[in-house]
Amino acid sequence: MILYIDTSNAEIMTVALGEDGKAVAKRSLKAKYKQAEKLLPAIDMLLKKSIPRTTFRTRKVVRGKVHRTLDLKGIVVVNGPGPFTALRIGVATANALGYCFKIPVVGIKSTEFNNLDEMIKEGEKRIKKVENKRSKHSIGSAWSAKQNIVEPEYGQEPNITIKK
Fold it and tell me: What is the CATH number of the domain that holds 69?
């Protein structure tokens, strides 16, 4: 399963889960100027409500509680073009989750797809390429988080004004 994050639209943000080239679950919400407050809760809700318990794998038992993690293969994030803050929030969240779960993160431009299904298909191809590169390195090798960072691409120069 792959997590998809799209904050490239200033008005609406979309998070989705995809598998075998199709969307398994999707959540779109209005988030104008509120991406920072709404992105992680939207991802959490998507995972909790849309995924059957059988998709989770048990990690370990700590103090009598079973801790489960979703079997994510990677994260695909739209990294441009789009609004500065919205893109930065989406990309930073994707990079942080990828680092935390030790899964690949890939960026995709919003101009490369017309709908969510196309994004899922292209995202899966890119995740497989990154997985192939990672598998060439031995488990104890120096495959680092730096090799797996996505950077936002804003599509234009910053528009900074000077006080009059």
Answer: 3.30.420.40
Q: Is residue 140 helix, strand or coil?
A: coil
Residue 160 inside a domain? The answer is no
The strand pair at 74-80 and 105-109 is best described as parallel
Helix, strand, coil in percent for the chain, rounding step 5: 40, 30, 30
Decide if 76 is inside a domain. Answer: yes
Q: For residue range 23-70, what is the model confidence (pLDDT) as tens digits?
A: 888 999 998 888 888 999 999 888 887 765 544 554 555 566 655 556
pTM exceeding 0.90? no
Inside any domain, residue 7:
yes
Total structural domains within the chain: 1
Question: What digits encode the pLDDT tens for the residues 81-135?
Answer: 888 888 999 999 999 999 888 889 999 998 888 888 888 999 899 998 888 777 6
Type of residue found at 68: R
Q: What's phi and psi for 159, nearest 5 deg?
A: -105, 85
Which structural domain, as residue segments, surrounds residue 119?
Answer: 2-148
Distances (CA, A) of 63 to 60, 66, 127: 10, 8, 35
Strands of 22-30's sheet, edge to edge? 22-30, 12-19, 2-6, 74-80, 105-109
